[in-house]
Structures are given as structure tokens and as C-alpha cells.
Specification:
- There is one protein chain.
- The protein contains 10 helices and no strands.
- By secondary structure, the chain is mainly α.
- It has one domain: Urease accessory protein UreF (Orthogonal Bundle).
- α4 runs antiparallel to α7, α5 packs across α6 and α8 packs antiparallel against α9.
- The termini are far apart.
- The relative contact order is 0.23.
Length: about 200
């Protein structure tokens, strides 16, 4: 029971790590007139399910290789910095005792899924619970960004989360690929007036 409570705390959207600063391409998709729900669904399938979930799975046993792969897969400055910043902020909360997380606190660059996984290892949170929690956490970040932008209301956002999370696939193969996210991220970097940092 304690590990479930710790998992709820770790994946709570109000965890003070600054996730509200990032939209992961949602803001640019909205400004470009792209179907935001479609963007979120595809980003979830192609980047979270095929990228961050396998990275977190690997980080349970090898956070260094997971870090290398994860950093290499985040192609734009915005997306890479967002994940690095969330990882460091999570590490600095001192929620867990982990040698790798201690190195992150001292300046080692890694990504959010890697630190999440290491926290789960330290807190004895089951791997599958961790991976589903990560999927929910990253999906919620995108949906809440869309709600803040007015692309959908809160009820639509909750429906979208429910629809997507019920069909989540916990992949083992690392093969993230969603070029439109990279294009939107590059355009967003150039945007003068914006709500989110990415």
C-alpha cells in the first residue's frame, strides 16, 4: 500500500517540478491550426509509448545508457532542455535515495523518464506501475497545456486522458519518431510571444 501512495505522490500533476512551463509542442500545434487532440494522441503513441516508456524501463537497470539514448532522441533544444530541467527538479525534491539521482542533483544531465525510473527503484514502486505512471504524467502535461491554451476545456481534457490512457501500450522497443513535433518545436523556439517554454 505504501508503494501505491508513493506512486500517487510521484505522478501527481501538482508535484512542484515546473511541468506547467512546458507544452511539448502543443502550443505550436495550436497556433499553427493543427488538430490539437490528434497531435496529443500521436505524440503520446510515437514519443511517450515508443520513446520515454522504453527509456524508463531501461533506466531501472542501466540509467547511464538510458540517459545517452534519451538525450540523443530529443532533437530540438526546447524539448531536450524541458526534459533535463524536469529531471533535475524532480531529483532536487529529495523524494528518494539513489546514487544516480544524487549525481543528477550535482549536475549530471539526464532526462525526466530516467529520474522517474530511478525514484521508482528507490521507493520500491513496481516497474509496471512506474511505466503507467510516467505515461499518465507526460500525457497529463500535454493535455493540461491544451486546456490552458483554450484548445479544449477541462472536461474534454479529462475525456482525452481517459481515452488514451486506457489503451496505453507499455513498449520495450525504443523507436520514437514524430517529425512534426520537432518541426513545431523548432518553430516555437523562434516564436516571440508564447505561453510555454517549449
Amino acid at each position: 500500500m505504501n508503494s501505491i501512495i508513493r506512486a500517487f505522490q510521484l505522478f501527481d500533476s501538482s508535484l512542484p517540478i515546473g511541468s506547467f512551463n512546458y507544452s511539448y509542442g502543443v502550443e505550436e500545434a495550436y497556433y499553427e491550426g493543427y488538430d490539437v487532440k490528434k497531435f496529443i494522441k500521436t505524440a503520446f503513441k510515437e514519443v511517450i509509448e515508443k520513446g520515454d516508456i522504453p527509456i524508463a524501463r531501461l533506466a531501472f537497470t542501466d540509467p547511464y545508457t538510458a540517459t545517452q539514448l534519451s538525450l540523443a532522441s530529443k532533437l530540438t533544444r526546447e524539448i531536450k532542455e524541458a526534459s533535463i530541467n524536469l529531471a533535475r527538479s524532480l531529483a532536487l525534491l529529495d523524494l528518494c535515495q539513489d546514487e544516480f539521482v544524487e549525481k543528477v542533483k550535482k549536475g549530471l544531465k539526464t532526462t525526466y523518464p530516467v529520474v522517474v525510473a530511478r525514484c521508482c527503484v528507490s521507493l520500491n514502486i513496481d516497474k509496471e506501475v512506474c511505466l503507467y505512471g510516467l505515461a499518465y504524467s507526460e500525457l497529463a502535461q500535454m493535455v493540461f497545456a491544451a486546456v490552458r491554451l483554450g484548445a479544449m476545456d477541462f472536461i474534454e481534457g479529462q475525456r482525452l486522458i481517459s481515452e488514451i490512457i486506457q489503451n496505453v501500450s507499455i513498449n520495450e522497443e525504443f523507436e520514437p519518431f514524430y517529425p512534426i513535433l520537432d518541426i513545431f518545436s523548432l518553430r516555437h523556439e523562434e516564436r516571440e510571444v508564447k505561453v510555454f517554454m517549449s
